[in-house]
């Protein structure tokens, strides 16, 4: 049997602006992960069990553009394995779906790794990342590539579309609380709406994206220097711009203000927005109290994670 795992991810700064070539920072969230196990089997065909998304079927019955089917078909094509071996593939994940935590990406990366290892096809992280990006397009349309990068490398990433991967050092570990609004909102839609705004007034929005770029740039600097408290103000400022882009929501704003009232150093929505998760920077000692305050304010789930 061959197995592989990939972590969830969360965007710290720069979502949406990153689609327009500005930098963004994202980190892995190792408390949640996707896991894939592959074994040979005697019966012919490739059997897939992915209970979380209710898939119990033979590969042939999945549409070819289904992300799981696409990983398998594309990898066999790339590795020139023909005919397909007889396999049983088990996919499970603890990452909430469509919540900005990279659930689909983590399945793609874990499945690619497990499958490549199982068929003895060697792939570097760079190749896995490029492969996963192609699959991301099936989920998101025009992804920036930040999700597959942070999930593949499982390291904090300072990401600029089209530029070489830059992982960054965290001088002093810090704690964030991630809280879920419980609302599932497709990233494709919020990305599309921001595009409409930008098309209607490019000068204005380019300016806003530049302001966000400055925030991401400053955040990388203070993380590298270990001046963590300054990150809080940067999160607050980034949230303000995300509101201006219309991608926040009353529920996200409510959790952001509950976190600040509960003593967080700063807070913002994270990812596509309109639902999904927000993040709050906290001193470790009060992380549980802030998580509780967020649940009282309506969050359906919280994750406390250390960025290191
Ligand atoms: O919703 P998520 O966490 O997958 O993040 C989307 C991030 C965006 O910047 C909004 C889109 C992208 O492709 O980078």
Can you put this structure into words, describing what you see?
By secondary structure, the protein is an alpha+beta fold. The protein has helices spanning 67-79, 103-118, 125-140, 146-153, 187-200, 202-225, 229-244, 250-261, 287-296, and strands at 2-13, 24-40, 46-50, 55-58, 87-93, 157-159, 166-167, 174-180, 266-269, 277-282, 301-307. The chain is built from nine helices and eleven strands. The model has no long low-confidence stretch (mean pLDDT 95). Helix 2 packs across helix 3 (125-140), helix 5 packs across helix 6 and helix 6 (202-225) runs antiparallel to helix 7. (3R)-3-hydroxy-3-methyl-5-(phosphonooxy)pentanoic acid is lined by residues 11, 15-16, 18-19, 100, 140, 143-144, 146-147, 187, 191, 271-272.
List all distinct small molecules, including ions and cofactors, that are bound in this structure.
Answer: (3R)-3-hydroxy-3-methyl-5-(phosphonooxy)pentanoic acid
Oligomer type: single chain
- Beta content comes to 15-25%
Q: Helical proportion?
A: 40-55%
Broad shape: globular
End-to-end Cα distance, whole Å, is 32 Å
Radius of gyration: 20 Å
Structural class computed from helices and strand pairing: alpha+beta
Tally the helices: what do you get?
9
Mean pLDDT: 95
């Amino acid at each position: 049997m061959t197995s592989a795992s990939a972590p969830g991810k969360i965007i710290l700064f720069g979502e949406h602006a990153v689609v327009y070539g500005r930098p963004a920072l994202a980190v892995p969230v190792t408390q949640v992960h996707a896991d894939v196990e592959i074994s040979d089997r005697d019966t012919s065909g490739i059997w897939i069990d992915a209970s979380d998304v209710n898939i119990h079927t033979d590969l042939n019955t999945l549409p070819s553009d289904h992300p799981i089917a696409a990983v398998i078909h594309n990898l066999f094509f790339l590795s020139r394995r023909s005919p397909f071996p007889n396999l049983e593939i088990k996919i499970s994940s603890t990452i909430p779906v469509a919540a900005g935590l990279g659930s689909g990406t983590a399945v793609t990366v874990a499945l690619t790794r497990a499958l490549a290892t199982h068929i003895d096809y060697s792939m570097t992280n760079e190749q896995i990342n490029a492969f996963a990006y192609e699959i991301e397009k099936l989920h998101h349309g025009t992804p920036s590539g930040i999700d597959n990068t942070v999930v593949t490398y499982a390291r904090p990433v300072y990401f600029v579309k089209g530029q070489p991967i830059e992982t960054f050092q965290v001088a002093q570990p810090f704690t964030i609380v991630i809280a879920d609004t419980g609302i599932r909102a497709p990233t494709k839609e919020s990305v599309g709406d921001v595009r409409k705004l930008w098309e209607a007034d490019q000068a204005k929005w380019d300016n806003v994206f530049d302001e966000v770029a400055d925030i991401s740039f400053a955040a990388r600097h203070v993380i590298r220097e270990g001046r963590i408290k300054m990150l809080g103000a940067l999160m607050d400022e980034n949230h303000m711009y995300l509101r201006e882009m219309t991608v926040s929501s009353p529920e996200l704003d409510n959790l952001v203000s509950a976190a600040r009232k509960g003593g967080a150093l700063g807070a913002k929505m994270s990812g596509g927005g309109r639902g999904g998760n927000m993040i709050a920077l906290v001193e470790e000692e009060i992380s549980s109290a802030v998580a509780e305050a967020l649940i009282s304010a309506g969050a359906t789930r919280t994750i406390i994670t250390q960025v290191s």
